Amino acid sequence: MKKRLISSYDEENDTFVGKVDGENGYCADYGISEGIYLGVNDSHLPATIIIPNASKVFNTSKTILESADVKIGIVCDETFLKFSMCVEDLKIFSSKCRNNFNIPKINYLMDSNI
């Protein structure tokens, strides 16, 4: 499933925020990896991503995070959630955690270029 991503990066506060276009708010917020928070809608589908201290979490420069070309992939099954983030087609981060969030089985791509 592909969704349009609206993303912004605040260099001063080093915070990355991504939101699925058309989503308004979220019903739950989960820490899916150290410093990465996923907001889900009432259907338990990803709606927002919030990453305070983003340059430290991703171990990358603030300049890279300012790019408008961002893709976030989330793949879930009953057991695991896999998160990955690419900037300008370069994977800058990936992680895997237990799916304790009632997120259904999905293969979700949030892309700033669709």
Radius of gyration: 13 Å
Distance between the termini: 12 Å
Main pleated sheet: 9 strands, mixed
Mean pLDDT: 94
Which sequence of SSEs, written as H and E, runs from N to C?
Answer: EEEEEHHEEEE
Query: What fraction of the residues are assigned to beta strands by DSSP?
Result: over 45%
Low-confidence runs of at least 5 consecutive residues: none
Helix content: under 10%
Query: Which class of secondary structure composition applies to the elements?
Result: mainly beta
**What is the spatial order of strands in the main beta sheet?**
3-4-5-2-1-9-6-7-8
Number of helices: 2
Number of strands: 9
- Name the shape in a single word: globular
Question: Layout of SSEs?
Answer:
Blueprint: E1 2-10, E2 15-20, E3 28-33, E4 36-40, E5 46-52, H1 54-57, H2 62-65, E6 70-76, E7 80-87, E8 90-98, E9 106-111
Parallel strand pairs: 1-9
Antiparallel strand pairs: 1-2, 2-5, 3-4, 4-5, 6-7, 6-9, 7-8
Structure overview:
- The chain has 114 residues and is mainly beta.
- Helix content is 7%, strand content 55%.
- The chain contains two helices and nine strands.
- It has helices at 54-57, 62-65, and strands at residues 2-10, 15-20, 28-33, 36-40, 46-52, 70-76, 80-87, 90-98, 106-111.
- It has a nine-stranded mixed sheet.
- A hairpin with a 2-residue loop joins strand 7 (80-87) and strand 8.
- It is globular and about 35 Å long.
- The two termini are 12 Å apart.
